[in-house]
Amino acid sequence: MPHHDNGSKLIWFLTGAAIGAAIALLYAPQSGVQTRRYLRKKTEEGKEALADTGKELLEKGKEYYERGRQLAEEAGELLERGRKMVTG
Hints:
Elements: H1 2-27, H2 32-87
């Protein structure tokens, strides 16, 4: 599934960004108060980004489920029509 791969890439990207931010903090010449404020802000941004991504993935999953259900119904109808044609 290509969409699973996109979600995986996003998770790895966010993980890399978090690690990069943590390393940058170790070398940043900021006070403890500023650093905590920065961490709080970035954590909130990350949480919001993950929530948004989760909502998008959920919506896509619903769309795929509905499309699959429709295809299954259509296949069932075709099968029934074919059965009626064969049996007369």
